[in-house]
Amino acid sequence: MTDSMDELGPVDWMVVQFPGTDYGRGQVAPHLQDLVERGLVRVLDLVFLRKDEDGTLEMGEISDLDDSELGELRASEAELAMVLSEQDVSDLAETIEPGNSAVVLVWENTWAAPFGSAVRHAGGQLVASGRIPTQAVLAAIEADAKEGV
Predict the structure, then answer these.
(1) Cα–Cα distance between 85 and 40 in angstroms, integer?
(2) Contacts made by residues 65-69, CB under 8 angstroms, sequence distance 24+
(3) How far is 53 from 51, CA to CA, in rounded Å?
(4) Alpha-carbon distances, residue 30 vs 20, 27, 49, 53, 74 (angstroms)
(5) Distance of alpha carbon 81 from alpha carbon 68, whole angstroms
(6) Closest CA to 105 of 52, 63, 48
(7) How high is the mean pLDDT of the chain?
(8) Residue ranges with strand state E in 39-145
(9) CA 52 – CA 69 distance, rounded (Å)
(10) Which of 82, 120, 126, 147 is found 20 to 30 A from 138 (Cα to Cα)?
């Protein structure tokens, strides 16, 4: 964890679904590991889910997967805070379609920790926040490009 709770950055989560049962064929883990190594994020929790065609759910952790699926992320296992409860994972698993795998990722945005600390020390507080889905941004850019034609 961080040296001081005052230096905790914003924490986000996501569920990423992949077709089939192989968690993205090992193509995603190296990119996440790069973000960790550069100090931009810190993985707080990482859960792997597989849902059979009949809807049966299988949950796994880093220790349950081989290096071809994880790469260097295996080294991060000791640092996980395990912030999700079993109920959280069960609820999130409902979003996964049968016959697919998914990764539930919770991370701290360590790059924003000093900014957040400065805001708090200046008496500021977060009053609104949100995220615009990538697909919506791409659609807006495409629509603007068509209008400019």
Answers:
(1) 25
(2) 65/23, 68/26, 69/22, 69/23, 69/26, 69/29
(3) 7
(4) 20, 7, 19, 28, 11
(5) 24
(6) 48
(7) 82
(8) 42-51, 57-60, 100-108
(9) 18
(10) 126
> What is the token pair recorded at 142?
């495409």
Q: Sheet with 11-19: list strands edge to edge.
A: 11-19, 100-108, 42-51, 57-60
Question: What is residue 70's predicted lDDT score, i.e. its pLDDT?
Answer: 56
Residue 85, both tokens: 């409860």
Strand (E) or helix (H) holding 18: strand 11-19
Residue with tokens 């989560």: 13
Please check the confidence at residue 77 and state whether its pLDDT lies above 80: no
In this structure, which amino acid lies at residue 6?
Answer: D
Task: Give percent of the chain with pLDDT exceeding 70.
Answer: 81
**Tokens 């089939």, residue located:** 20
Average the pLDDT over 64-78 and give the result: 55
